[in-house]
């Protein structure tokens, strides 16, 4: 199962998920001048990031909005990056946060689990209802695909909906309980389900309860670094140093900008950022 592959990658490489949220603003001018088309500029930058971190990174997450913002050429860059990750046998998450239903969801599933935009995992938004999740489940049946579903997110606005009291408990617990039930038929040898959850690392007061309550769920944990979460915070969502991957985007892919010689040593400072984050989370490999 793909979740077992992710579990094993974390065991070998640590909990870091590198977010390839690639804006042209993040890319050195020299590289932008070297390549003519936006898709090639984006891809070549992403390739540099991947090549210098692949042995210490469990999985890569691509937020599709960054690529969509550049139109067709941006999406070509998204496609090329995913193709490259597959070619080196690296795992990927398409951060697409789809949340529609019925035939529309069927088409979204086909778009991101097949063809040009194929990824190993995608993110989903369940707050339109659980019939926004079920169209994706047929892709989980063979064990080769997985999903991370928004549970309790890291943004301040999460309290507008996710924390509403419903029958004596926060709405996100109702969502999590249902997702755990749905995921019970997709448990891998690692003990984790192909239906995982997105759990923001910035609200640590519920972390221990969430980890204890959802023992079979693998977590995608945003919020580290730029959004304020520290290693000791996000580690509360892990179980025996596994059970989740922690995403960082800007903190890694723009790390070179913090150094005077960064343009000459992009790979060095990118790698150092991953190693530092990995240590901060508590990886001891």
TrEMBL record:
Pathway, per UniProt?
Pyrimidine metabolism; UMP biosynthesis via de novo pathway; UMP from orotate: step 2/2
> Keyword Lyase, does the record have it?
yes
Where are the active-site residues found?
97 (proton donor)
Concerning Pfam families, the annotation shows: OMPdecase
GO MF term set: orotidine-5'-phosphate decarboxylase activity
Q: Which residues belong to any copy of the Orotidine 5'-phosphate decarboxylase domain?
A: 15-265
Q: What class of enzyme is it?
A: lyase
Q: Which UniProt keywords apply?
A: Decarboxylase, Lyase, Pyrimidine biosynthesis
Per its record, the protein catalyses: orotidine 5'-phosphate + H(+) = UMP + CO2
List, alphabetically, the InterPro entries matched.
Answer: Aldolase_TIM, OMPdecase_type-2, OMPdeCOase_dom, RibuloseP-bd_barrel
Which biological process annotations from GO are given for this protein? 'de novo' pyrimidine nucleobase biosynthetic process; 'de novo' UMP biosynthetic process
**EC numbers on record:** 4.1.1.23
**SMART domains (alphabetical):** OMPdecase (SM00934)
Question: To which protein family does this belong?
Answer: Belongs to the OMP decarboxylase family. Type 2 subfamily.
The protein's matches in NCBIfam families, at most eight in alphabetical order, are given as: pyrF_sub2 (TIGR02127)
Q: What is this protein called?
A: Orotidine 5'-phosphate decarboxylase
Say which species the protein is native to.
Tissierella praeacuta DSM 18095
């Amino acid at each position: 199962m793909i979740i077992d592959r992710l579990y094993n990658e974390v065991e070998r490489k640590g909990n870091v998920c590198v977010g390839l949220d690639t804006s042209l603003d993040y890319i050195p001018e020299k590289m932008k001048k070297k390549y003519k088309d936006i898709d090639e500029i984006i891809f070549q930058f992403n390739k540099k990031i991947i090549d210098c971190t692949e042995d210490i990174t469990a999985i890569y997450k691509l937020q599709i909005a960054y690529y969509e913002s550049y139109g067709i050429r941006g999406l070509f860059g998204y496609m090329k990056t995913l193709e490259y990750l597959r070619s080196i046998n690296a795992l990927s998450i398409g951060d697409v946060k789809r949340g529609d239903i019925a035939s529309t969801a069927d088409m979204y599933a086909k778009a991101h689990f097949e063809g040009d935009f194929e990824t190993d995992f995608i993110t989903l938004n369940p707050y339109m209802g659980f019939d926004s999740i079920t169209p994706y489940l047929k892709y989980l049946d063979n064990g080769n695909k997985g999903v991370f579903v928004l549970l309790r997110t890291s943004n301040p606005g999460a309290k507008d909906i996710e924390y509403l009291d419903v029958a004596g408990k926060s709405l996100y617990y109702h969502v999590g309980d249902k997702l755990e039930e749905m995921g019970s038929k997709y448990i891998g040898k690692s003990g984790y389900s192909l239906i995982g959850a997105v759990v923001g690392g910035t609200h640590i007061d519920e972390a221990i309860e969430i980890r204890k309550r959802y023992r079979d769920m693998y977590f995608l944990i945003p919020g580290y670094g730029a959004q304020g979460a520290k290693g000791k915070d996000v580690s509360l969502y892990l179980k025996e140093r596994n059970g989740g991957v922690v995403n960082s985007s800007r903190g890694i892919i723009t790390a070179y900008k913090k150094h005077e010689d960064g343009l000459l040593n992009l790979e060095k400072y990118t790698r150092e950022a991953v190693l530092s984050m990995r240590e901060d989370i508590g990886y001891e490999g």
